[in-house]
Structures are given as C-alpha cells and as structure tokens.
Design brief:
Two copies of one chain form a homodimer. By secondary structure, the first copy, chain A, is mainly α. Chain A has six helices and two strands. Helix content of chain A is 61%, strand content 4%. A two-stranded antiparallel sheet of chain A has the order 1-2. The structure holds a DNA duplex (30 and 30 nucleotides).
Chain lengths: 157, 157
DNA sequence: CTGGGTCTTGACGTTCACGTAAGGCCTTCT
DNA sequence: AGAAGGCCTTACGTGAACGTCAAGACCCAG
C-alpha cells in the first residue's frame, strides 16, 4: 500500500510551512530560486506537498549544521535522480564521504565548545552564588542590555 | 610554578599562525578589528603570544560550529573579566546556557545529517558497484566537473 | 642602493542568505 | 463598491566575514 493512499494528499500554503518551521516566505522563495524546492502552482500561488515539506526540513537541518545551500542542493538532488548518471553519483559519493568526515569533526568541535561553555557556566555560577544569587536562573532578557564592544557594527536606534 | 616560567615565551608572526591554522592574515586582522584578539606590537608588526594563539583556536572552533564572531567574542570576554561585573556575568551565564542547548540540538542535527548521508552513500555505492565500479573510492577532483544548477551564481571563468 | 620579501593601513569589492519595499492580482468581508 | 488580506514578482538593500588591490614602511642580500 503506497504512502499516497494512506496519507491524505494534504498540501500547504507558503505561510503554513513558514509558521511550522519558523522561517519567512522570502526564504522559501529564495530556496526555490536556488532550485532546492519546487512546489506546484495553483494559478500563481505556490502549493507545497508533503514531499516539499520534507525537503524543506532537510534544508533547514542542513543549514543548522552549517551546510551552504548549494551543498544542501547536491544532497537533495540525490533523492531525485537516484539512478542513471553514474559519474554524477560517484562525485556525490565522494563529496558525501568528505561531508561525513567534516560533520564528525564538527561534532567533536561541538563537544569541545560545550565543554568550554559548561566549565564557564560552572565558574560563573559559583561566582554569582557568592555575589548576586538573585540573578541566577534568569532568562537573558530579564537582566539587562549589553555594553557595546569595540568593533561593533553601528546600528541606528 | 606559574605557566610563563615553564613555557618558553614563544611568540608568533601573523603568517605563522595563519599557516598553522589555515587562515589568512586578513582574517586575523579582521578578528582584531572586531575585538576578538589583541596581539602585542613590535614597532608596527603584530606579535602573537600563546594566549593569542589559544584565543584564535577558540575563535576558529566557534566558527566551525556556527557561532557568529560577536557570540565568540562574548565567550572569550569571560576569560578576560572572570570576576567583577556580576550582572554582566549573569547575562553571560544565561546566554551560555542557551548556547549549550543550541549546540546540543545542533549535534542531534549533525547525527541526523550523517545518517542521511550515510544511507545515501550506501545506496550510491551499491548502485555504482553494478554500473561503474571503476569510479568507486575516487577523490572528488579525479572525477569530473559538475553540471550547473538552476539558481547558480554566474562566475566568470 | 636597488630589488625582493614581509609587514602595515586603508578602502573598496564580493558572496551568501536573505530583508524590505513597491506595485499588481485575486478573493473575501463589510 | 471598496477595503483588507494573502499571494505574486521585481529589484534594490543589508549584515557578516572576509577578499583584493593600492600604497607605503621596514629589513636584508647582493
């Protein structure tokens, strides 16, 4: 029983997807421009399928781990061609292997960064516990604006 | 026995650090502009200490996990102030906690991305094994240029 | 003392990933 | 009928993170 029969052929408007994934219509149109996603049209309006939604999800995940849109595009392409074009697939394979290595190294970086931050947090906590225990456990906004830093971009306001 | 006595007070030129970490002089000067690093001077020339080198390492690691330079700056600042300025520290603490959560979520994304890529590799491998086993295990450059993709930026060549 | 190499400071250019109007089409509500 | 609201395209603007000259200063070898 193919999936299309089980799933209602649900579609999404651009705004629905944006709300679900916390991005802007401009971003979706941009991804479309770049060939990462290609929704159907109802007249002029974009109509997104489940498949489009899945692609969007992969795009956003890819972005979050630091992939460029062009790289994400290469990955997504794989699921479109699947067969044929052997040399293209070989290129993809080599690139993907590189990517996997890069991601694994990146994960090590993350672990180190978390360690650094966690140690910093420990230090900060013990310090604050002695000086200003009232400020502990506050969300950022509840505390204060920040001081400017040397090379900070000037921003009118 | 403080560290300065055990370590030779070794210094680095801008180029040495660049070669070690694979970045450009322009980048180092840019980080300095942004207040992330502040080497001594010998006349006009920058002289980097071990401490500067450590900061640079943190900067690059931070970048690799997707932190903005401004965020990296906040983290580095912590190691400079250390004490005093309790509210500032409280802000840092809150931000760092947020950051840790973000990084952990990012690590999950990486794991998922690796899974996706690994599955893709498996598929590609089995396909290539049947069609073009000669192309397996090739590095990217050894294979072929790529086809253009729809929204590709035009680049004179 | 001329050339080469390495450093410096501007200052403008570039790429990426969008943001932000400006203006038009369509449907729906009042 | 007309105003509101959602979608569209086109086009120019923007912030981050540098790249890329240009024009000097400094030092050393020949």
């Amino acid at each position: 029983m193919p999936a299309e029969l089980r799933r209602p052929a649900r579609t999404f408007t651009i705004r629905q997807l944006c709300q679900e994934f916390g991005c802007t219509p401009r971003a979706l149109r941009f991804y479309e421009d770049k060939g990462l996603i290609f929704p159907e049209r109802d007249g002029m309006n974009r109509v997104y399928s489940y498949k489009d939604r899945a692609r969007l999800q992969l795009i956003l995940r890819g972005k979050r781990v630091g992939l460029a849109l062009s790289e994400i595009g290469e990955i997504l392409d794989l699921y479109e061609l699947g067969d044929g074009c052997a040399t293209q697939n070989a290129i993809s394979l080599a690139k993907f292997r590189e990517r996997i290595r890069a991601l694994e190294s990146q994960r090590r970086d993350i672990d180190m960064a978390v360690d650094v931050l966690q140690e910093a947090c420990t230090r900060l906590e013990s310090q604050l516990k002695q000086t200003r225990p009232d400020l502990l456990e506050q969300p950022v906004e509840a505390i204060r604006p920040r001081r400017p830093r040397p090379g900070e971009m000037r921003r009118a306001g």
